[in-house]
Design goal:
Oligomer: heterodimer
Largest sheet of chain A: 4 strands, parallel
Number of helices of chain A: 18
Helix content of chain A: 40-55%
CATH architecture of the largest domain in chain B: 3-Layer(aba) Sandwich
CATH topology of one domain in chain A: Rossmann fold
Structural class of chain A: alpha/beta
Order of helices and strands of chain B: HHEHEHHEHEHHHHEHEHHHEHEH
Helix content of chain B: 40-55%
Distance between the termini of chain B: 25 Å
Strand order of the largest sheet of chain B: 2-1-3-4
Radius of gyration of chain B: 20 Å
Largest sheet of chain B: 4 strands, parallel
Distance between the termini of chain A: 33 Å
Structural class of chain B: alpha/beta
Strand order of the largest sheet of chain A: 2-1-3-4
CATH architecture of one domain in chain A: 3-Layer(aba) Sandwich
Radius of gyration of chain A: 21 Å
Number of strands of chain A: 8
CATH topology of the largest domain in chain B: Rossmann fold
Strand content of chain A: 5-15%
């Protein structure tokens, strides 16, 4: 595994290159505060970062820590420690990566030196879970607070209506919106209690305004990827989501995404693609293999570029009225649920799912995606340890086949490299390129 | 040893295949529609009160899941894939309706896929919060209201308060009788084995509550007359994922253990409490099916207190050891296992975990592990 040629990823945009300075600057600021013993909240994606900023609370995302450990090739060290403690190898490797970190930290009293950042994630003062996406995202924190750090926990539970219930029916909307509103109120009460601070709604509104400005640039930059040749690829995409976790609400993030938008726009105007000879345009479903992000560059070297990703639409932008900032947060979540319904999702619409549009398999959506982005194929990463994100891939593949678009489902994981083999992956990728070529020439797709 | 002995040809009288035959006959006999349900959050009392036959869908251990592979990923709960494969093969065609509650992720995910590839006359997903906040409880109560509407629209029969309360009483009587049998299992030489008990509980998912009451009543009377056998064996509690086939219980018994209680669904979890008889029946249903129903898919807060009831049961039934059973990819149980194991260990209770892909095989390997565990007790 350590022999993989695909560990390193090359990005194409100058803006994402700037993150090399921006992120360490941010992490240094955070680390200084951690070292002065400011409390840190560990949070699950789905907890609004704007709210945490309004409390001026330090926060960490164990899921993001998992991606960092994976890309620095140290995740197996932590995953193994968790497995030795009794956690099943089938569990989400973001979970086991964090559990291993906690175990080693608790046993030795020191932050494991393998951590990608000095000081690691520190020690949590509180845990903010979320039922967004999957149940491990609150059970994970339940277990951390049981066996490693006895700290308070608050988990939200953003449910959404199933695909065959009309969310535009006012009774249904109110049914779900009440749950979302009350959950948020409970979250704020929890934060006020454990930070000793009162939420300043005006401050929250200002943060949300900056956040939404940044995310609008992000949305617009992504839409420009419909251009031929595509001005931006997956290595830039997956890297550029990090500021959405830590920096949204800051002017720095507005500047970053504006610059990114301007750069992508400029590339489109000048007709600059990420590869010289763009042969195949692909969409990516699922989580990426963080330990081998060079797989995207490998495909690019054969003229295959990714123009859309189904995951990590964490900061997707929705137009909401920010005058009541709490209602805006609720409506933003609800808008996601509505979007999925309006597209006729069949898989997993019952959770307000901020990060997974792979479960979003309505025929209109797929058809639009194929037409708008001129897709030739789809690659689906079937992550053994993350069923939440890979669920629906076989179904989506079936639906895409009906639209004449071939897909490749390949198995591996987002953080655990043990399932990866360069030789096998390459064989499958080459075969898939041939399938796409055949489909481009008007050939039949074998799959149902 | 051929594992199929356990999965196909055991001594069961209420196996999935036999129950499916029963439900087909019942449907013919009564002319009522059959509504299948998975997991226990949508009350079968309401299905009955709406004039339909509730049927608890169960799997066929070790069955072929290849039909499901054409629609869902191989990485997913084998139990759910097993049931879905059977639906795709037309083996559940006696179902007129389907109710899936949002119990665990995988069951919830099944809903859209099932209804897309195999639509039914009636289908509904009963959404269930994971938290036990006051507003989550209110949400569950509103779900009961929507569920009632959907059922009434489908069967055309109104669910009156009185009718619903009648159904609750009937089902509660089932629970009282089951608990009477469970009480006898506290005896130093219990008159009924775990495998026999589980088989009996399987009947509760298929028989109408009045018929089940007769069956249970006769069983209680008959078990009371049994002569105790003087064979002391290690007393075992089984904990874990859905257990709808006695194969594992039989293996433990054959290896020299005695299962005197469990913490599983369709076992104790389903029968330990009665639905409180409240003026507004929704109140009682909410308490029973949501608040008090012990499944790790519901958040009962951090800390080991969430396992207190297991320890209490272990004491009540004088347990020597716990055997855990986890079906592949069963996140709620797999995430609880290390915490539970450590909690029980502090109290001197050892635990063995069996990981399985819902095939109870290879039987010899499982039995060897069980035997080694029993020897340590």
């Amino acid at each position: 595994m350590s022999q993989s040629e695909m560990k390193r990823a090359k990005r194409h945009l100058e803006t994402t290159g700037k993150m090399k300075e921006m992120l360490p600057r941010f992490f240094m600021r955070m680390m200084e505060r951690k070292f002065s013993n400011e409390p840190v909240a560990w949070c699950m994606v789905g907890v609004p970062p704007e709210l945490l900023k309004a409390f001026d609370l330090l926060f960490e995302w164990p899921e993001n820590f998992g991606t960092m450990c994976a890309s620095r090739q140290v995740a197996p060290h932590f995953i193994q420690a968790a497995e030795n403690d009794g956690f099943s190898p089938e569990l989400c490797t973001y979970v086991t990566n964090t559990m291993g970190y906690c175990k080693l930290l608790k046993d030795t009293g020191e932050v494991p030196e393998e951590c990608p950042l000095p000081g690691g994630m520190g020690t949590p003062a509180m845990l903010l879970g979320s039922g967004f996406i999957c149940e491990p995202r609150w059970k994970w924190f339940q277990s951390i607070a049981t066996r490693y750090f006895n700290v308070p926990v608050y988990s939200t539970d953003p449910l959404a209506p199933p695909w065959d219930v009309d969310p535009h029916d006012p009774r249904i909307a109110e049914h779900y919106l009440t749950l979302l509103r009350e959950d948020l109120a409970g979250q704020i009460e929890f934060l006020e209690k454990h930070t000793g601070k009162k939420l300043d709604l005006d401050h929250l509104r200002e943060i949300l305004e900056r956040s939404h400005k940044a995310l609008a640039y992000w949305r617009d930059a992504l839409a420009l990827r419909k251009a031929i040749p595509s001005p931006m690829g997956s290595t830039d995409y997956f890297h550029a989501i990090i500021p959405q976790m830590y920096l949204v609400g800051d002017e720095e993030a507005v500047d970053f995404y504006r610059e990114m938008y301007e750069e992508v726009k400029d590339r489109v105007e000048r007709g600059v693609g990420i590869v010289e000879d763009e042969k195949y345009r692909l969409t990516w479903f699922g989580l990426p293999p963080w330990f081998n992000m060079g797989v995207f560059n490998y495909l690019e070297s054969m003229g295959a570029v990714f123009v859309y990703e189904s995951t990590y639409n964490v900061g997707d932008h929705f137009e909401v009225d920010l005058s009541d900032p709490l209602e805006a947060i609720v409506k933003r979540t609800w808008q996601r649920a509505l979007k999925m319904h309006d597209y006729g999702a069949e898989t997993m619409p019952e959770l307000c799912n901020p990060a997974v549009f792979g479960g979003f398999t309505g025929s209109d959506f797929l058809k639009e995606l194929v037409e708008d982005y001129n897709l030739n194929g789809a690659m689906m990463h079937l992550t053994r340890s993350c069923r939440a994100v890979s669920f629906g891939e076989v179904h989506t593949k079936n639906r895409l086949a009906k639209l004449g678009v071939p897909s490749l489902i390949f198995e591996s994981d987002m953080a655990d490299p043990r399932l990866w083999s360069d030789a096998q992956i390459k064989t499958r990728l080459h075969a898939f390129l041939e399938t796409m070529e055949k489909a481009k020439q008007g050939g039949e797709i074998d799959e149902p | 040893m051929n594992h199929k002995k356990y999965t196909r040809q055991g001594n069961m009288t209420y196996s999935t295949l036999e129950n499916e035959e029963r439900i087909r006959n019942l449907k013919k006999e009564t002319g009522k529609p059959v509504i299948g349900y998975l997991c226990c959050f949508a009350p079968p009392e309401m299905i009955s009160a709406a004039g339909a036959i509730p049927y608890r869908i169960t799997g066929e251990p070790g069955g072929d899941t290849s039909a499901a592979d054409a629609c869902v990923e191989p990485y997913g709960c084998t139990y759910v894939r097993n049931i879905f494969a059977r639906a795709l093969e037309g083996k559940l065609d006696f179902l007129d309706g389907l109710v899936i509650s949002h119990s665990c992720d995988m069951v919830q995910r099944l809903y859209g896929i099932w209804t897309y590839y195999r639509p039914l006359n009636f289908s509904c997903m009963f959404n269930v919060p994971h938290q036990l906040t006051p507003w989550a409880k209110d949400f569950y109560t509103r779900e009961l209201g929507f569920f009632q509407e959907y059922l009434e629209n489908y069967t055309g029969q109104k669910i009156s308060r009185e009718r619903l309360q009648e159904e609750i009483k009937l089902y509660n009587h089932n629970r009282t009788l089951v608990r009477e049998l469970h009480e006898m299992r506290k005896d130093p030489l219990p008159p009924i084995e775990g495998s026999e008990m589980l088989d009996l509980l399987m009947a509760g998912g298929v028989l109408p509550p009045d018929r089940y009451n007769s069956l249970l009543k006769n069983k209680v009377e008959e078990v009371k007359t049994r002569e105790p056998k003087d064979d002391k064996k290690p007393r075992i509690m089984v904990w874990g994922s859905i257990m709808d086939h006695p194969a594992l219980f039989e293996m433990i018994e054959e290896t020299g253990g005695r299962i005197v209680c469990d913490d599983t669904c369709i076992g104790f979890r389903l029968w330990e409490n009665e639905v409180p008889l409240t003026e507004d029946p929704y109140e009682g249903l909410k308490e029973h099916y949501f608040v008090n129903f012990q499944c790790p898919r519901t958040d009962r807060g951090p800390g080991p207190d969430r396992f207190n009831y297991i320890l209490q049961r272990a004491r009540d039934y004088k347990i020597d050891g716990v055997i855990g059973y986890c079906i592949s990819f069963c996140d709620p149980h797999k995430l609880d296992y290390p915490d539970l194991r450590d909690y029980l260990k502090k109290d001197g209770l050892p635990m063995l975990l069996i990981d399985d892909n819902y095939s109870f095989s290879p039987a010899e390997a499982i039995k060897t592990r069980v035997q080694a565990f029993l020897e340590t007790l």
